[in-house]
Each structure stands twice: as structure tokens, then as C-alpha cells.
């Protein structure tokens, strides 16, 4: 069985794949073009893409040998699931193993934005720091502040636990339904059935909903207008959830205090309107970027490929 891995994975996972299957690796570790992906669909049995690969309908146009797309990552909005289904191709992802790493990055962004750490480092590296003074780079405390979570899945819950138990924050959330009673009791979490009501009640807003048509530009100009002028927006979910032009305008005019972003709509491109703003922290999609998590993601993908090869049910099938 021939397997294409579209980007380099941790060495341990690549070796494990190569021990079991005929594997082609992407030595230069560059994003593949749509034409290259389309050719691969006819040359391999399994495609192992990442978020940097756009698997749209055109990729399937010339027929497909591929029978499984084993995505390296939990998000799969870069894959046209309807087109894959029409070709009879199964799609899997790697859920569960990214939870703690992504929650850590959410808190990293929250702390950096609240304490103006990005501004401070830039000032120091540029040689502009003139020394300590009482009014220098005043930020926001966390204790007693409301963390509003948009979505209440595993990563949101892990983020809330860190915020409540580690920093003494209060927890509120918006979602399609209330979370499990034991989680709500543990976190003393207040449920908001209306998104804009949650935004208006929160000092920090952290996004934890999947990408896709339903959530595209969920945080638009109206949503940002519902936030407090002293509040902060944190996004570790998907870039398309936020209207970045509206966000840049809100930040530039100080209608919100700051933001922390790890994801963008058209990566690796970062919205130009954000780059010159001091009150936004910009990270290069580091949510799962620790060694343990990246290996675990690869092993999850490998488990799906192995199950496929044996004709067994796929453990993480999404389509």
C-alpha cells in the first residue's frame, strides 16, 4: 500500500510508517501545489495531508486511487468532505491528543495580551526601553476576570480549568447546548445562550469552535462591538472564524484592548492590517507544537492507516 505524507512528520512517526508501508515523504517540506495533490490522488492509496494542504473538489477531478485521507490534525475544514464522499474516500483526523497543548497556547496568548508582553519584548529588543517606571506598559490582571469561551469542547474545558484553578478567573461560555453538569459545577461556569451577551459579559474571549461555513466570520464587526473596550480576543481555533479587517479596525481604534492570535484564514499569510498594531500578539500556529503532541498526532494518523489496511473500522473517521 502506497502512502504519501505531504509534510515532514516527527522522525519516530515517519519510521513507524516506513516499517509498515511503502511511504513517500516530502523531503523539502514545502506545501504541495493543487496540481501535485491531484496527481497524488492517482498514484497513492493513502494521502496524509495537514492543514497546509487545500484538498478541494478540483483535487478529485481526474479520478482517485486514494481510498483514505488520514489527516494530520484535528481540524479538517481544508478538506472538501462532500467531494471525498462522492469518490468513496474515507477521511480521518487526530482528535484528543492536542487538547492540553492548545489550551496551553490559549493561556500563553491570554497572558501575553493581558500583560503586553509582545510590546515589551519588541521595545526591549529595539533598544527603546528607558527603564522601570510606574506607568510603563500597564496591562490587565486575570484574577476575578471573566473568561468567556465560545464553544465548550475539550480544548475549551482544558483552557477554562487552567484559567479558573490557576489564575482565579471566572468562567462563562456560549454554545449550542449546556456542558455536562459535573464540568459546569467544577468550573462554576455560567451558560450564555446568546453569543453577543457572552461577549458583552467577558473580559477575555477565547474561541473554541470548528471552522467551516457555519462559523466563518462569526466574530465580525457586530460581535466585536458587543465586547467591552477593556476586553481581549484570543483565537487558537481557526482563522476564518474572525473577520480580521473588522478586528484590525477595532484594535486600531481601541474598541477592544487587545488580541492574541495563533491562526489565520490563509496561512502562512497573516492579515497585513494586523502587522503594524502593537496591541495584538501574533503566533505562527503553535497550538500543537510540542514534541509529545506532534508525535501523538502522528501515531493517531498511523493508527487510522493501519486500521484501513486491515479492513477494520477507522478509529477517528470524520467522513
TrEMBL record:
Belongs to the D-isomer specific 2-hydroxyacid dehydrogenase family. InterPro entries: D-isomer_2-hydroxyacid_DH, D-isomer_2_OHA_DH_cat_dom, D-isomer_DH_CS, D-isomer_DH_NAD-bd, NAD(P)-bd_dom_sf. It comes from Croceibacterium selenioxidans. This is D-glycerate dehydrogenase. It holds the Pfam family 2-Hacid_dh_C. The keyword Oxidoreductase applies. Gene3D superfamilies: NAD(P)-binding Rossmann-like Domain (3.40.50.720). Keywords: Oxidoreductase. Residues 107-287 form the D-isomer specific 2-hydroxyacid dehydrogenase NAD-binding domain. Residues 3-318 form the D-isomer specific 2-hydroxyacid dehydrogenase catalytic domain. The keyword Oxidoreductase applies. CDD domains: GDH.
Amino acid at each position: 500500500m502506497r502512502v504519501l505524507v505531504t509534510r515532514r512528520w516527527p522522525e519516530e512517526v515517519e519510521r513507524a510508517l516506513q516499517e509498515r508501508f511503502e511511504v513517500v515523504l516530502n523531503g523539502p517540506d514545502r506545501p504541495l501545489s493543487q496540481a501535485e495533490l491531484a496527481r497524488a490522488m492517482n498514484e497513492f492509496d493513502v494521502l496524509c495531508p495537514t492543514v497546509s494542504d487545500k484538498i478541494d473538489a478540483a483535487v478529485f477531478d481526474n479520478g482517485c486511487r486514494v481510498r483514505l485521507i488520514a489527516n494530520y490534525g484535528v481540524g479538517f475544514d481544508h478538506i472538501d468532505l462532500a467531494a471525498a464522499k462522492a469518490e468513496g474516500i474515507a477521511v480521518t483526523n487526530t482528535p484528543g491528543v492536542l487538547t492540553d497543548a492548545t489550551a496551553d497556547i490559549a493561556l500563553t496568548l491570554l497572558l501575553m495580551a493581558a500583560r503586553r508582553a509582545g510590546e515589551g519584548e519588541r521595545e526591549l529588543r529595539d533598544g527603546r526601553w528607558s527603564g522601570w517606571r510606574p506607568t510603563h506598559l500597564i496591562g490587565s490582571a486575570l484574577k476575578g476576570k471573566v473568561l468567556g469561551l465560545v464553544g465548550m469542547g475539550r480544548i475549551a474545558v482544558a483552557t477554562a480549568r487552567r484559567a479558573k484553578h490557576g489564575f482565579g478567573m471566572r468562567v462563562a461560555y456560549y454554545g449550542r447546548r449546556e456542558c455536562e453538569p459535573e464540568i459546569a459545577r467544577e468550573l462554576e461556569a455560567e451558560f450564555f445562550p446568546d453569543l453577543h451577551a457572552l461577549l458583552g459579559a467577558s473580559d477575555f474571549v477565547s474561541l473554541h469552535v470548528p471552522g467551516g461555513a457555519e462559523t466563518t466570520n462569526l466574530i465580525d464587526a457586530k460581535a466585536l462591538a458587543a465586547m467591552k473596550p477593556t476586553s481581549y480576543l484570543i483565537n487558537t481555533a481557526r482563522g476564518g472564524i474572525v473577520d480580521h479587517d473588522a478586528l484590525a479596525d477595532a484594535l486600531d481604534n481601541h474598541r477592544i484592548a487587545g488580541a492574541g492570535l495563533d491562526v489565520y484564514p490563509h496561512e502562512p499569510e497573516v492579515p497585513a492590517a494586523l502587522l503594524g498594531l502593537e496591541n495584538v500578539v501574533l503566533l505562527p500556529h503553535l497550538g500543537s507544537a510540542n514534541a509529545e503532541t506532534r508525535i501523538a498526532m502522528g501515531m493517531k494518523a498511523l493508527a487510522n492507516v493501519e486500521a484501513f489496511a486491515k479492513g477494520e473500522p477507522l478509529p477517528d473517521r470524520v467522513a
